[in-house]
Amino acid sequence: MRSRAVTRLAVPAALLLVVFGATSAYAGGSLSNGALVTGTTTQQYSYTTQYDYWSVTAVQPTATSDYDLTLYDAGGAPLASSTYGEGVTDFVAVDSNSGTRPFQTYYPNVNLYSAGSYWVQAQYGARTVTLPTPTHHGTTGFSDPDIAFITLNSDDVVSIADIYLTAGQSFWAVSPSAASQLYLLEADTTHPSTFVQSRYAATLRLHTQVTDNCTLYTATATGWHALVLVKDAPPTVTNPVQGIAYGLHQYDSTQPNYCPMANFPAATP
Fold this sequence. Notes:
18 strands
């Protein structure tokens, strides 16, 4: 396991709005890291991987419209598609960790299915979540040092962070409905098809169970996995910045039916 500098999931001060000129090589232009771009018609965008992390592109339609997402590689071959319905976020994530996909330019294609408008965003990765080693029984609330967080700001469509897990390792996520928004993506180095995953594929590969008012996630492979968080709602600029967050806590196999965050945000004895 190589060493990484851990980057805290900080709230950005502002959004970067990118406007592309008509002379762009791709109809929609290049998606800058974290930039939020709006559209109404079928468009092809691009982004270039440059970090040994997972990255993700996501499209969020308005509540009454439907836009799907297909990701193409540098040679123009389709890699994966996400085709959920009206108002639901579609995403495709790419693993660029060592031994997976090499750095290259990808082409996310947003396809109009039911007219309206959408927001599209690429997150290049380069963030890491580390599960603290528990120091005490239960938790005391938001500031408990045994809890890590994955966050999604209200003015974003998607967030992503790498997390290193070994095969069989489990962790708790606060809320029994976490798996509807929070996805654990893991690549199997013996199956290159797992290096690119749509939301549907990620759903099929999830190993979760709901116990004690929390959701337990379990890894089936060893390596750098991705945590992808979506909210199935249009981005909203708020002051101060708001959003959603899931607390994460290491699992204790000696207490299989006990979630230390069962009463979160209140204390759990």
